[in-house]
Amino acid sequence: MAMARLTPPSDTSLAISLQKGDMKALTQIIDRYQSPLLRYANYLGIGHDDEDIVQDTFIKVYKNINSYDPRRQFSSWIYRIAHNTAISALRSSRFTLPWEDYLDRIIKQSPTDNIDKDLQKDHVKKCLAGLPLRYRAPLSLYYLEDKSYAEIMDILRLPMGTVSARINRAKQQMRELC
């Protein structure tokens, strides 16, 4: 007799469950999104307080879950909260660790077998760090987080043409920087 596979609940069903007060749904959302949001905060150059950004994001998700519209994509909604939290943190003076220090930490944290791949990754991240945030954010979401243009529109609250233009300008600037 074959065992039935359990499919994990969708993001939307978890959000709806959380709206109804199911704290297990919040735990599942945290488990699902903690690593990607931490990675995104890192790409934005938050530095040593990236964990705080993600923690603040989940607090805001919990407090504002009733504003989530199940007809929209949950991942775009939560990334938007993370983005806004990161931008607020960048504007404040309490986040001061430069991007290069973050890169050193990443290199130390991610052992790989392929040294060339590490060097390429390091080079790309250094080039990315040289971009203004307005270009770094959409480029990171598109290439490093595999978000579609539509999702980036929702996350950054930008029109499609602006998303496309910023990604193209970011690529051009990276070619010039690197």
What is this structure, in a nutshell?
The protein is mainly α and 178 residues long. The chain has helices spanning 11-19, 23-43, 50-64, 74-91, 99-109, 115-129, 133-144, 149-156, 160-177.
Task: Describe the protein.
The protein has helices spanning 11-19, 23-43, 50-64, 74-91, 99-109, 115-129, 133-144, 149-156, 160-177. With 178 residues, the protein is an all-alpha fold. Helix 7 packs across helix 9 (160-177).
N-to-C span: 57 Å
Q: Provide the low-confidence segments as ranges.
A: 93-114
Count of helices?
A: 9
Radius of gyration: 18 Å
Helix and strand sequence: HHHHHHHHH
Class inferred from helices and paired strands: mainly alpha
**What general outline do the C-alpha atoms trace?**
elongated
Helix content: over 70%
Mean of residue pLDDT values: 80
Q: How large a portion of the residues is in β-strands, by DSSP E?
A: under 5%
Largest sheet: none
How many strand elements?
0
Question: Topology of this protein?
Answer:
Layout: H1 11-19, H2 23-43, H3 50-64, H4 74-91, H5 99-109, H6 115-129, H7 133-144, H8 149-156, H9 160-177
List the main descriptive attributes of the protein structure presented here:
178 residues, mainly alpha, 9 helices, 71% helix, 0% strand
